[in-house]
Amino acid sequence: MRLLEIQFEEKASKRIYDKYMSQVKKTVKPLNAKEQDDILLEINSHIYEGLQQNKHNDEIDRLLDILDKLGVPDEVLKPLVADKKMEQATRSFNPWHMLKALVLNITNGISYLVFFVLYLMLFGFVFLIYSKLTKPVETGLFFDGNHFQALGRISPEYLEGTTTHELLGHWFIPAMLVAIVLFYILITLLIRIKRKINK
Question: If you average pLDDT over residues 162-188, what whole number do you get?
Answer without folding.
Answer: 87
